[in-house]
Design goal:
223 residues, alpha/beta, 9 helices, 7-stranded mixed sheet, globular, Rossmann fold
């Protein structure tokens, strides 16, 4: 972290204003080192914990242990998920090498790394991962204002094996404004996935200036 305070000046409005993958990489290159202190802790951002807990609750425990954490950021989802599910193997994918570097420092209770592999990936493009196919895929904070639209869902489906489970969170306003419901319906109609179940969760804890913001989570199985 630099001493000029530039990282601390970055906030949610900056994240919502990105328009391209290059914008995204530039933002998180500046923000990665202070992301957890200046945003997660300061703004009471509960989303990574909440979506890991929801995945643990709804995904079958005999699903298999190999999970892709898409848009893993600094690795909080993987950290929480590895504490909830013994033996889980998590690969993290993110567009930002600086965020992946932070995720690589995350450790489990036994001192081992949270992530098996960390993969730099642009989700607007087809993803070539030799580490899959995965038993499950989880995503928190990736589909939100200024970030990915519903078209990117097509690049995620091939990462998971037939019978594998997805839990994808989408900012509620972004979900409504960009037509995610129509895209999920089209994927189900085409026979690629089962009809999703949708559930809203709070993104911030009580006391946050952003309390009340919600995510629509979509959970479904690949057919």
């Amino acid at each position: 972290m630099s001493g000029d305070g530039s990282e601390q000046a970055i906030d949610l409005s900056d994240a919502y204003s990105v328009k391209t993958p290059q914008d995204n990489k530039a933002l998180y290159a500046k923000w990665a080192a202070s992301y957890e202190s200046s945003f997660v802790d300061a703004k009471k951002y509960r989303y990574p914990r909440a979506i890991a807990e929801l995945f643990d609750r709804v995904a079958p425990h005999d699903l298999g242990n190999l999970i892709a954490d898409v848009g893993c950021g600094t690795g909080l989802v993987g950290l929480y998920l590895s504490a909830l599910r013994d033996g889980v193997i998590v690969d993290g994918l993110d567009i930002s090498p600086q965020m992946l570097e932070q995720a690589g420092a995350k450790k489990r209770g036994d001192g081992s790394a949270v992530y098996r592999n960390l993969i730099e990936a642009d989700l607007t493009q087809a993803i070539n991962s030799a580490s899959g196919p995965y038993d499950g895929l989880i995503s928190s904070g990736t589909f939100t204002h200024g970030h990915l639209g519903p078209d990117a869902l097509h690049n995620l489906i091939p990462l998971v094996r037939s019978g594998g489970w997805f839990l994808i969170g989408v900012n509620a306003e972004h979900f409504a404004g960009r037509g995610f419901d129509e895209e999920f319906a089209a994927l189900a109609k085409s026979g690629q996935i089962c009809a999703p179940t949708f559930e809203k969760i709070h993104v911030y804890d009580v006391g946050s200036p952003h309390y009340g913001d919600q995510s629509v989570t979509a959970r479904f199985m690949r057919l």
